[in-house]
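Practice problem: predict the structure.
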Amino acid sequence: MKIIKSGFDIFQQEKLITLVSLGTTIIVALFIWAGFLSFYFFNQMINYLQERLDFSVYFKPGILREEISKIQKILQNFPGVTEVSLITQEEALEKFKKEAKTNPVISRALAELNINPLVDYLIIRAEQPETYPKVIEYLEKSPYKAYIDYISYYANQRVIERIISLSNKIRAIISLFVLLILILTTLIIFNVVLVSIYSQKENIEVLRLIGASNFFIRGPFLVYSFLFTFLGYLFFLVGLIFFFEKTANFWPSLISNFQPISFLFDNFFLLNGLAFFIILFINWLGTFLALEKYLKI
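Answer:
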């Protein structure tokens, strides 16, 4: 209890140093949460794109619709496939006409045509992107390959692979940046606590003279570190929740499934516990290193 009381005494006496430590804790929490949100953002972006990733199988003119329906039923039962939609030649033309309304040249050309130049095709959607190559492999090895004119998957695949590659690189850069911030913060805390230790020099000397152990000398400073870490993170968390609630309508405009406030509350204890203990570890490490340096003098 004496160690805890001494820690509270340091917290009350060292007002300026405590203020700096609180500010440092808030800045570190900000960078850690920037890392969390960056990972969440890029995961949501990839999920958003993958949900919209599909491919079409275009059939050669003259292929009987009964044969196309057979392929549709087979693919609907394919493991991992969630939906197979048949777009008929007539539906494809109507869709194309609607999209071409803004282009008078195309609209005029369509009006002059006496035949429908489009073909029947299937739109295939799967749960995971890994399913698509398996579907294509099946189609290319099946007897139905002769019916197929064109598969649109490969163009879509290149787009999604580029986005995943870019997001992985950005994640790596963010991780490195956060790591550097954590190292710099440890050095800042080290110097801040060292100043605090020197301000408590007389008390430490008295404890040494009466034969107090190093643990007893370190204890109050570790309690002090816990206090400014807890309060600093609490201030940050209140501000973060307030900010997310005020900007809740903005984030879905970036990506429809990007909702930081939901991400925060859905993972409240996990993320805040992790962030808090990372900051506490950094602050304790800085405190411990500063005390080791001082106690060896």
